[in-house]
Amino acid sequence: MHLLDWLLFALPVVLVLGIAVAAQRYMKSVADFMSGGRLAGPYLLAVASGEMQAGAVVFAAMFELISKSGFTLTWWWMIGTPISIIVTISGFVFYRFRETRALTLAQFFELRYSKRFRLFTGMLGFLAGIMNFGIIPAIGARFMVYFLGLPPEVHLSGFSLPTYVLIMGAFLGITLFMTLTGGFLTVLIVNCVEGMITQIFYLIIIGALLVIFSWPEINAVLIDRPAGQSLINPFDSLSLKDFNIWYIVISIFVGVYGTGAWQNASAYKSAAITPHASVMGNIMGRWRDLGKNAVVTLLAVCALTFLNHPDFASQAAAAHVQSAAIESAQVRGQMEVPIAMSHFLPWGIKGVLCAILLMGIFGGDATHLHSWGTIFVQDILVPLRKKAFDPRRHILALRLSVLGVAIFAFIFGSLFQQTEYVFMWWAVTTAIYVGGAGACIIGGLYWKKGTTIGAWAALLSGSLLSGGGILARQLLGTAFPLNGTEISLVATLVAISIYVLVSLLTCREDFNLDRMLHRGKYAAAAAEDLGELPQKKPTTSRLRLGIGRVIGITENFSTMDKWIAGGLFGWSMLWFVIFAVGTIWNFIAPWPTSVWSGYWHIAGIGIPIFLSLVMAIWFTWGGLRDMRELFRRLRVQKVNVLDNGTVIGDQNLDEAGGKALPEKSNSSPMGCLPRKISPHE
């Protein structure tokens, strides 16, 4: 590492600490700590939430996947393009969830079902979440240890301690400070700033890689594979284990079913200033991902080229020796690409990538810490208390819970021995919760006949099947016929069937969805009473029947919104048509390897690089605009101390006429100056 690299490495640390200190004075309420006051615009949401996918653990997981499957999964992912794009543009689940004004998913479950159901789902979601998160800081720290070329162990007073444990502790400490100062408000601002910087740094890395490696060199490594395990021909990759077409098909189905269910970034679901802004944030996030994916793919294939092409044999020898020294086969596979990058990236560029990874670690870990910490308080402690917290004690409880999650992650990451691919571990841990919760969410938001008994039956069956599958896989190993994604599919199908059947058998009265979603006669009063921006009516029969209505474009879409959403739909469907034509063509007359090589040179490298440039300009402008608007809104935002996640009957506390008022507090949280107070206080 050159001095410039270390300076770039220090940039995220200074950035995070500086913003955390400066932003904390804007945090005035529980809603601010939980959801940034529900004041985020779509660009802010898109840029900030994308930073969760820029951390070292995500890079490690993607490198692991690409090194096993190459470009082939990119082809098969296009199977689900029509479904995924309609889900995104229509705001499936996200729009209605934001209409409920719930701060967490389990709070919505209490609104829709019961307090006991909220409490159980809070516990289950929290346990599954911290297990899922537990490996993330450790993998990120290991990644940085091997990428920076640090010694595997440090000797202190006669004791040997793995270096990654010390690095993990340092990273968690910085992330914890950022999260505790201003809660999600700080996390949102830091992630947006980091995301805008990351977009520019991506372009620098791409330029360097194009100078170091040529496409003929990359292509020579990608085509040198046994029959049935091709990295460029999807139709010659069906022998690939785990990451194949069936992995894609199942993942698409389970992904749609579990929309909004997993809560590792729960605050982003409730942080939008309006339900429509939440939808547009997801749409813009899809656009931004098109540019971001280029650098991950390019880094992975360049690392494979460096490790396997004869032109780099002498330089790669040291990397092979370093990889071979890792005892665990699973860790060795995860760290192979980071080790290679540490050897072929020049100084300066290595520092740029370090900064990207470190900003991603801080952004992703902070979001996880905030999500699981706040869920423990909001969905376990709050329902159990007979009397609501006062604001100061409420925020103190939230902070202590976030601290507890960080301590657990440090201990778990230090002791846990990983035996699964990262994506497989995530699949099985999320399935413990999402396997049953997906049916409860979709049914609860869209079906007035869904019942509490049906929700209990679906959640328990889905979770037990998922947990049982995981246990069976651990006990039987390869003798168990299903992998992680297949286990989640079975659990999902059973949960859906049971939810529908039991609800139909037990429904005695239709649920009032309009009141929960603040629609119809409840809409105007809610908007005026709560000081939120009024919404146009969602899609109605008065809208003209056309492609816009089919894909989910409603009256809430401005002209610019329609161009953005329509452009995403058109771009996505263009690639789906290419996929459909290419698939039929290959069944009739298979393309030779040279054609596939040319296709991926353009579709897998060239076009994504161009999109990276466009997205960097577009989202830097949009992110700055929304950041400015956020601070303007914070200065005039009314503080409502009753907006704290408490549910009375089947209504949020601030909508229930002020019943069960929280204990009085003579000082505002954090000792900050109060903003303008609303009549509710």
From TrEMBL:
This is Solute:Na+ symporter, SSS family. Keywords: Cell membrane, Ion transport, Membrane, Sodium, Sodium transport, Symport, Transmembrane, Transmembrane helix, Transport. GO terms for molecular function: symporter activity. It is a multi-pass membrane protein. Coiled coil: none annotated. Residues 653-681 are annotated as: Disordered. It is found in: Cell membrane. It holds the Pfam family SSF. Belongs to the sodium:solute symporter (SSF) (TC 2.A.21) family. Its main location: membrane. GO terms for biological process: sodium ion transport. Signal peptide: none annotated. The keyword Ion transport applies. The chain crosses the membrane at residues 6-23, 43-63, 75-97, 117-144, 164-188, 200-223, 243-262, 290-307, 344-362, 396-417, 423-446, 453-475, 487-507, 568-588, 600-624. GO terms for cellular component: plasma membrane. It catalyses: L-proline(in) + Na(+)(in) = L-proline(out) + Na(+)(out).
